[in-house]
Design brief:
By secondary structure, this protein is an alpha+beta fold. Helix content is 19%, strand content 19%. The protein has a domain of 50 residues.
C-alpha cells in the first residue's frame, strides 16, 4: 500500500507516524484507514517486536478533521457510505 498521510517504517521497532503536520495531524478518514493498514502490516510482521506511534511536526494529533472539505469525520458517517 502507498501511504500518503501516514509514514510506515517497519523493523524490530516499527514506527507509525501521523504525517499531516500542516493540520497538526488531525485525523481524516484516509489517515485512519492508512494507520489501520499499517498496524495490520506490523502485526503480521514476524520481525516486529514493538510499535511506536507518533506524529510529525509539533503535535501528535489535534483530533478528528472536522473541516468538511478534505475528508471530514461527521457523526454517523463512514468512508464506505454505511451507517
Amino acid at each position: 500500500m502507498e501511504y500518503k498521510q501516514v509514514q510506515y517504517k517497519p523493523g524490530k521497532v516499527t514506527q507509525i507516524i501521523f504525517n499531516r503536520p500542516e493540520y497538526l495531524n488531525a485525523q481524516s478518514y484516509q489517515m485512519l484507514a492508512e494507520a489501520d493498514q499499517a498496524f495490520t502490516a506490523a502485526a503480521s510482521d514476524q520481525n516486529c517486536g514493538a510499535i511506536v506511534l507518533s506524529g510529525a511536526g509539533r503535535a501528535f494529533s489535534a483530533g478528528h478533521d472536522l473541516d468538511g472539505g478534505r475528508n471530514p469525520i461527521l457523526p454517523g458517517t463512514r468512508p464506505d457510505g454505511a451507517h
